[in-house]
Design a protein that fits this description.
The structure holds two protein chains of two kinds. Chain A is an all-alpha fold. Chain A has six helices and no strands. In chain A, α1 packs antiparallel against α2. The N and C termini of chain A lie far apart (47 Å). The C terminus of chain A is likely disordered. By secondary structure, chain B is mostly helical. In chain B, α1 runs antiparallel to α2 and α2 runs antiparallel to α3. Chain B is elongated. Chains A and B meet through α1, α2, α3, α4 and α5 of A and α1, α2 and α3 of B.
Chain lengths: 171, 101
């Protein structure tokens, strides 16, 4: 086991622990902050898997923009003191059973695959190569995603408009 | 040489299942959206590992598109949550039981 494998497992443990803490917190603000740690861990993982550009995007977009958006909305809702209804007791056993079966099916599918034990080779893709590839092979998808972002912006402005007081959009 | 491909996919599966549990078990719309984000993150990790296995750039391109889709989904989703909160005064999805607009 070399230093890269050690870094991978350490990052994996960090991501999993932060995600478990995030989904079990009572307060939404705490879980958003734990999720920021989880996304920083994913950014480290992307760097390790050979894409510094996507690691930077993960930090900027996921850990930066999306999580700050969550924090703003959590603060606007003023619903933190509201007691969250617990998941009904009688649904816990089937819920956990189905979740465990789903995870077991994933494990069987992953580890019975012949390409599963193949070790990954370290490569690094520079942002220049990546940009050339995306804009030469997938330019139509880039346009579609940009159109989708524009539609999301319009929908957010329309939905966030407060009728009566006229405060404008939230985004 | 880093880890076997199966370990990356197992990590992605664990994160996806955690997000699924968060979506199903939490009774708070903000936490449901957070669960969807976690699931998308797990999918992105699986794409990164697959792109590295076959030494193709398509995996990373799809991670880029997942980022864009996650940003759109979360902005529209949070706007919908705010809208529903102003209508009903609650973020519990069980309280949304009136179809009248």
């Amino acid at each position: 086991m070399n230093v890269y494998a050690l870094m991978f497992y350490a990052t994996a443990v960090l991501i999993t622990a932060a995600t478990v803490l995030a989904i079990t917190r009572r307060q939404a603000v705490h879980s958003v902050l734990f999720l920021v740690i989880s996304f920083f861990g994913s950014a480290m993982l992307f760097y390790l898997l050979g894409s510094p550009f996507l690691a930077a995007l993960q930090v900027i977009i996921y850990a930066g923009a999306i999580m700050v958006l969550f924090l703003f909305v959590v603060m606007m809702l003023k619903a933190d003191h509201e007691v969250e209804n617990k998941f009904p007791q009688r649904f816990w056993v089937p819920g956990l059973l189905v979740g465990f079966l789903f995870f077991a099916a994933i494990c069987v599918a992953v580890f019975s695959d012949p390409s599963s034990p193949v070790p990954l080779n370290l490569t690094t893709v520079t942002p220049k190569e990546f940009g050339r590839f995306v804009f030469e092979q997938y330019w139509l998808s880039v346009e579609i995603v940009s159109l989708l972002l524009l539609l999301g912006l319009l929908a957010a402005i329309h939905l966030g408009k407060e009728r009566g007081r006229g405060e404008g959009g939230q985004e | 040489m880093i880890v076997p491909y199966g370990h990356v996919l197992a990590l992605a599966g664990i994160i996806f299942c955690l997000g699924l549990v968060c979506v199903v078990a939490r009774r708070n719309l903000i936490m449901v959206l957070i669960g969807v984000e976690i699931m998308l993150n797990g999918a992105a990790i699986a794409f990164m590992g697959s792109g590295l296995l076959w030494q193709r750039l398509e995996g990373q391109a799809f991670v880029l598109f997942i980022l864009g889709i996650a940003a759109t989904e979360v902005s529209v989703g949070l706007a919908l949550v705010l809208h529903a909160y102003r209508r009903s005064g609650s973020v519990d999805p069980d309280t949304y039981n009136v179809l009248k607009g």
